[in-house]
Amino acid sequence: MLLSEGPAVNVTDLSISDVRFIPTEGHDTAFTLLEGVERNAIIQMLKETGGNKLETAKRLGIGRQTLYNKIKAYGIET
Predict the structure, then answer these.
(1) What CATH number did the domain enclosing 50 receive?
(2) Angle between helices 53-60 and 33-48 (to 10 degrees)
(3) How far is 67 from 77, CA to CA, in rounded Å?
(4) Domain for residue 67, yes or no?
C-alpha cells in the first residue's frame, strides 16, 4: 500500500530517493535503484537464456543494440 499526502505521488512518498545500488568488481558508478533493478533483470534473463543476447532482448522487450549498450553501461560480464 502506498500513502501520499497530496493528490499525486512524488519521490518523497516512495522513501527511496537516496537509495543507491553499488556495483561490484571495480565499477565506480553508483546506480539508482531503478538502474539496479534493470541491471539485475538483464543478468537474470541472460542466465535464463543461457547467455543468448538476442533472446534476452526479445524477452525484455528491448532491441538487441539497446541490450548491448546496457550491458556495457552496467558493466555486466557475459
Answers:
(1) 1.10.10.60
(2) 130
(3) 13
(4) yes
Neighbours of 45 (CB within 10 A): 18
Measure the CA–CA gap between 8 and 22, rounded to whole angstroms: 30
Q: Is residue 58 part of a domain?
A: yes
Instruction: Residue count of the chain, please give it.
Output: 78
Tell me, yes or no, if the pTM score tops 0.90.
no
What is the sign of the dihedral through the CA atoms of 38, 42, 48 and 53?
A: positive
**What integer pLDDT is reported at residue 25 of this predicted model?**
56
Count: domains in the chain: 1
HSE-up of 7 (CA within 13 Å, CB side)?
0
